[in-house]
Design goal:
about 70 residues, mainly alpha, 434 Repressor (Amino-terminal Domain), DNA-binding, DNA binding, Cro/C1-type_HTH
């Protein structure tokens, strides 16, 4: 799954650690989500969308597999 969390976080001037604290997860989790190594749970994805004030589908987009 692709996401725009790094850009949204940078726009607000938040560090990964600050975002992690707001979401009550580890900084490593934020890094893993931003780099696509980890897809957040649905409740966490909704929390991220709520925090940034955007619809979940504007932050997360599915990977499009090539045939």
């Amino acid at each position: 799954m692709n996401n725009h969390i790094r850009a949204l976080r940078a726009e607000r001037g938040w560090s990964q650690a600050e975002l992690a604290e707001m979401l009550q997860v580890s900084r490593q989790s934020v890094n893993a989500i931003e780099t696509g190594r980890y897809d957040p749970s649905l409740p966490l994805a909704f929390a991220i969308a709520r925090l940034f004030g955007q619809p979940i589908e504007s932050i997360f987009t599915p990977d499009l597999e090539t045939p």
